[in-house]
Design a protein that fits this description.
heterodimer, A: mainly alpha, Cytochrome Bc1 Complex, Chain C, 71% helix, B: 152 residues, alpha+beta, Rieske Iron-sulfur Protein, 2 domains, four-stranded antiparallel sheet, three-stranded antiparallel sheet, 30% strand, elongated
Chain lengths: 229, 152
């Protein structure tokens, strides 16, 4: 491990990092996490990184919103009003969560288009592409489940229609629809399910897939769009 | 460099850029941290549900056959001096789609401007239009010509 110029103007931070480095090799881990091989001709437009940034915003604002949100039919909409009208900066946190959700999907799709147009999905990077598709589906899952949580008329009917679309699958559609709704109709059970998936299942799944996605990128470096076989 | 020597006595270019960068970083962090701390801080405003009794005016300012829409504990309330039953008060939020209702003085009923829902000013009951339920009554009391609304 070569010595790099210190980032910190205070010597004790470097000594602390050295102390950790001797024991667990922290500098090597950080160096691996920071450095990716990027070909000079690569034009990534940082779309994946922007998507990751929006996910970070979603995680933080989502944790904050869960402090005041109640996932029951009686209290859900009132708790949204409470967040918007009573909680300090509640309107800001909720609005950022809503805007950032849309932007995350936009940049996810732009990232997909960039990779597709440059042919960056080609061997040996097929697995990164497949995990990326999983990440897109998980992100859309966030959107689908999150849309119900305000429990207003628009949310209720959007989810009614959305689950009906799943119900139109041949043969097993009815079972899928009942599974998604937790019963034949939208009810308190549906809200519990969607909340659980939105704040527990999907975040864990997305972070896991994200780590794999980023690990692959670090193992392979970025694709060179000018490289043609 | 030489022509800038007078300026560099005050602050070098590098010094200024360092200061500007430091200020930007601190301002950005503050812009994130302040709303988050504010959000975590327990909300201090009295919520509408916990609001107490409020004096909203005097009977002499509200002749019979007149009404006023007033904010009481952050919620709109319509106070009517009815011909039939004295001073009455109802939630002014239309039970149809949540518009704030108005007083129709010429025809003497409570009217929603959005979809022409009409309510009886004495009972709050729906006279006509799309509202599915009567206007919820709000506790009202007249003491010494003063009108009090809300409270237990």
């Amino acid at each position: 491990m070569q010595k790099t110029a210190s980032l910190f103007p205070w010597g004790w931070i470097d000594r602390l990092i050295d102390w950790i480095d001797v024991r667990v090799g922290i500098r090597q881990i950080v160096s691996y996490a920071l450095h990716v091989t990027i070909p000079r001709s690569a034009h990534t437009f940082y779309l994946g990184g922007i998507t990751l940034f929006f996910f970070g915003v979603q995680a933080i604002t989502g944790i904050l919103l869960a402090l005041y949100y109640h996932p029951t039919p009686e209290a859900a909409y009132d708790s949204i009003l409470f967040i918007m009208n009573e909680v300090n900066f509640g309107w800001l946190i909720r609005s950022i969560h809503a805007w950032s959700a849309n932007l995350m999907i936009v940049f996810c799709v732009l990232h997909l288009l960039r990779v597709a147009i440059q042919g960056a999905y080609r061997p040996p990077r097929e697995m990164t592409w497949l995990v990326g598709i999983a990440l897109l589906l998980l992100t859309l899952g966030f959107g689908f489940t999150g849309y119900l949580l305000p429990w207003d008329e628009r949310a209720f009917w959007a989810t009614t229609v959305g689950t009906q679309i799943a119900g139109s699958v041949p043969l097993i559609g009815g079972y899928i629809q009942d599974f998604l709704r937790g019963g034949p109709d939208l009810s308190a059970l549906t809200l519990s399910r969607f909340f659980d998936v939105h704040v527990l299942v999907l975040p864990v799944a997305l972070v896991g897939a994200l780590l794999i996605h980023i690990l692959f990128i670090h193992q392979q470096g970025l694709a060179d769009p000018e490289e043609r076989e | 460099m030489t022509e800038n020597s007078a300026l560099s006595d005050v602050m070098s270019r590098r010094g200024f850029l360092k200061w500007a960068l430091g200020f930007s970083v601190v301002a950005t962090i503050a812009g994130v941290v302040v709303p988050v701390i504010g959000y975590l801080w327990p909300p201090t405003r009295q919520s509408a549900a916990g609001g107490g009794r409020v004096q909203v005016g005097w009977v002499k300012d509200l002749p019979v056959g007149q009404a006023k829409v007033l904010p009481v504990n952050d919620k709109p309330v319509i106070v009517v001096n009815t011909t039939a039953g004295g001073v009455k008060a109802f939630s002014a939020i239309c039970t149809h789609l949540g518009c704030v209702v108005e007083w129709n003085a010429s025809k003497q009923f409570i009217q929603c401007p959005c979809h022409d829902g009409r309510f009886n000013p004495t009972t709050g009951a729906v006279i006509s239009g799309p509202p599915p339920a009567p206007l919820p009554p709000v506790r009202v009391a007249v003491e010494n010509d003063q009108i009090f609304v809300g409270g237990a």
